[in-house]
Description:
mainly alpha
Amino acid sequence: MGTMAAAGLLGSFILSVVLTAAVRPLAVRWGLVSRPRHDRYHRSVVPMGGGIALFGTLLIGILGALVGFGLLAPRMGLDPADFAARQGELAALVACALGLFALGLWDDKRRLGPFLKLAVQGLVALAAAAFAGVRVEFFIPNPVVTTLLSALWIVLMVNAFNFLDNMDGACAGIAAIVSGVLFTAAALSGQILVGGLALMFIGTLLGFLVFNFPPARIFMGDAGSLVVGFFVAVLSLRTTYYHQAGSGDWYPVLMPLIALAVPLYDFSSVTILRLRQGRSPFVGDTQHFSHRLRRRGLSDTQTVLTLYLATLC
């Protein structure tokens, strides 16, 4: 099992590096670039097709894992009925991720309005909770309530990581650290499929970071940040925490909140600042946590490393 885990991590890393390198010149040719604006801190034209590489790596990885697990299921003693159910959930998961990827790619090209984006995100989140089994299941026995709460959490995570994609390396690096924490919890609970998905996701993010760490040579765009937020939400909802709990019933609630404290703080602080200024929370600016650290005199690299350290703490 350890060999398979290492292969999944290394394979997704290599594939992500290759796809990101291939996408960079294509993004420029397609006009998929980020130009300097008043609400962005960068001052040069940067390719913005990283989301294509991220989604492509995850799609290939999940399809490959399905084939591999299908071949190894009898040898591993997996129940055929349970494995078939997991296949259906993964297919629904890929379909939901595809919806968000398409929405983000469209927004990268056309700059869609916030309400259309929220509406599509809400529908995708409900579909993920209802059909992909991505929902919280503790404390509340009512499936309707848990589905709605889970959909709300998915939308929150999607937007939190979309907001977090405001400085080189911030979104991908923090997502990788959070996913590492969630992988540890899943591994301690014996969750093979969730742990495998987490490792694949981490490898994908690290491969992209080869090109996105300051100074970034490519951005992920909304096509990437929406998908990243979605997979973080999936991992946080599907990971079982209570097997390690020695601190009472609130452990499974507080553990993911603490692990995700930095993106949640950035999202909430920027939203509050914009509302207090009488502005829409969905209009971009340079008031994010990273930008405020940058104005304190830190370099881009120092800023993103500080964000990583805060997430680890």
